[in-house]
From TrEMBL:
It comes from Sinorhizobium terangae. Gene3D superfamilies: Cytochrome c-like domain. InterPro entries: C-typ_cyt_methanol_metab-rel (IPR022411), Cyt_c-like_dom (IPR009056), Cyt_c-like_dom_sf (IPR036909). Keywords: Heme, Iron, Metal-binding, Signal. This is C-type cytochrome, methanol metabolism-related. Residues 148-174 are annotated as: Disordered. Residues 156-165 have a biased composition (Basic and acidic residues). GO terms for molecular function: electron transfer activity; heme binding; metal ion binding. Residues 41-145 form the Cytochrome c domain. Residues 1-24 form the signal peptide.
Length: 174
């Protein structure tokens, strides 16, 4: 967990130092999984991503991201990342946002003021129910943003990998 905290802190403070940290439109090709580490998938740039099987089974992290998003994020950002009158559609926003920026905004929060309107994204860096699952939430929203995941609960999911169980226990302080 200490390494993850250092990486997140560096992403937040020095995002320009991270290779590939250029905002560009994401698509299914860029989001394609090229590496598997104990059931967690990564794209060619090393960013977390999703992997769906031909029978519709989603990887554990995408399923977990769906659950965590709907536990903590959908209240403002709407079901399935589709947005609301209160907060933007993350299924669209993530398509134009790199991974370090996503982590930074969720951990530190953000305030936008314009046109006489103020929008505030609270910081979730101290909320373990969000912080410990940031990658999962990102992976789910990434799958939604590139059109790989339809709306609604994924019908099939892979089993929870041992690495996910160990990380969760460590992050949650168990």
């Amino acid at each position: 967990m200490a390494f993850r905290n250092v990486v997140l802190a560096l992403c937040a403070v020095f995002p320009f130092l991270i290779p590939g940290n250029v905002t560009a439109v994401d698509d299914k090709q860029k989001a394609a999984a090229v590496k598997d580490e104990d059931g967690k998938y990564f794209d060619a740039e090393g960013n977390p991503t999703f992997k769906f099987q031909s029978d519709g089974t989603v990887d554990w992290y995408t399923f977990s991201g769906y659950r965590r998003y709907h536990a903590d994020c959908h209240v403002c950002h709407g079901p399935d990342g589709m947005g609301s009158s209160y907060a933007p559609a993350l299924a669209t926003t993530v398509k134009n946002m790199d991974y370090p920026t996503f982590i930074s905004i969720v951990a530190e929060g953000r305030k936008n003021v314009g046109g006489g309107k103020e929008n505030v994204m609270p910081a979730f860096g101290d909320n373990k129910n969000v912080y410990c699952y940031l990658d999962d939430i990102y992976v789910y929203l990434r799958a939604r943003s590139v059109g790989a995941a339809p709306r609604g609960r994924p019908p099939k999911k892979a089993d929870k990998p041992e690495a996910a169980k160990a990380y969760e226990a460590s992050c949650m302080g168990e």
